[in-house]
Amino acid sequence: MDPCPFVRIVIGSLALKFPTETKLQSSTANLDCKIKLKGFSAQATSIPAFFQEQEAILDGKIHACFNFSKSELLKFIEKSNGKPSCLNIEIYGGSKVGTFGYFKGGGKKLLGSVLVPLDLKGLENVGHRGVVIQNGRVSVGGGGSTAELNLNVRAEPDPRFVFQFDGEPECSPQVFQVNGNVKQPVFTCKFSFRNSADRNLRSRSSLSEPSTSTSCFSSCTTDKETSVKERKGWSITVHDLSGSPVAAASMVTPFVPSQGSDRVSKSNPGSWLILRPGDNTWKPWGRLEAWRARNNELGYRFEIIPDGATDAITLVNSTISTKKGGKIGIDIINGATPLTSPNSSFDLGSGSGSGSDFGSQPGSGSWAQLLYRGFVMSATVGGEGKCSKPEVEVGVQHVSCAEDAAAFVALAAAMDLSMDACRSFSQKLRKELRQQDQE
């Protein structure tokens, strides 16, 4: 079945040009930038500042992205009542870069903003080469500013495969590929406990349920005294329609409460291995860690594991609301650095941007650039106590076979199950998640 059409609005090459008379403390000063589009979470980045007589070094860096499925784009157009939407780029500065003449005093304050009209109706059928919406320099409004912002805004096609669970992962659901109103079954999931009597799961490729292997990572722990309060041994195996296992998620580090608490802490997270079949055995593809963060949030970190390597490469590290749920998203905007999570808050004082120069991180980071660029995947995660049927999107460029898609489906299942694994130990889990010795 064909992938679903998506459109990606890309904002890049941002740099602010000041007139000669502007006094900066440093010619290499960076400013903070907040990029907003109605209906989306604001995205944060930093941009360089340069003088009129200088030339900006424009390296094609991407600063922000906004994604639309075809249905979302149509709804967005309908809500706008024919009026063009506007991309709002706000620029902030403060004591770190001196006074620009637009304000006085320390702290981060608004220097000015730029509005970029978006004719979303004209983006319904973006060709494979994309559309340039605006490119060049525009005046920055606000405070009598004579500064100019260099920017490049374009729309690109970004087709994705969409998968939907027809039930909660612990209920061993089917997984459908979705395209508009058409749904086609592609996978089945089997949830089980590795240390239970159910060890008879077999397939035509003779792979069994993934076992606990302490040799994969030094952080993996073995079973301790049965009296220890812990959630352990969960496993979910993804099969294709022929019954062959094509991916799995195996809980390799139990989820245990921190000392004197009933919650899983960041200092001692639980973890999963995401596994793929190879040479008639399971091979680790990625590792997911999860814990209970502050402010009723679920913290998580996903790392990819290069084949045959011992060091993992972090692709995403963020949080999700335990009350409302959210999305795990992997979006590599410059081939090196993940895009700021849509669930992350904008912090002018953090100085953390959503992008980095392509190829700026040598070593193992450059390995990730070769395999993962642009939108990689996203998956919905339900809040605590809510019925959760994950929906998974995977970029077409990252799927060349069923095992590729299944690995992301297994990751989505592990992420959703982590919401339950990190629940307060004073709360009882649903029966599907409790072993017989916990009844």
TrEMBL record:
InterPro entries: DUF1005. Residues 202-222 are annotated as: Disordered. Residues 203-221 have a biased composition (Low complexity). It comes from the Eukaryota. This is Formin-like protein 18. It comes from Capsicum baccatum.
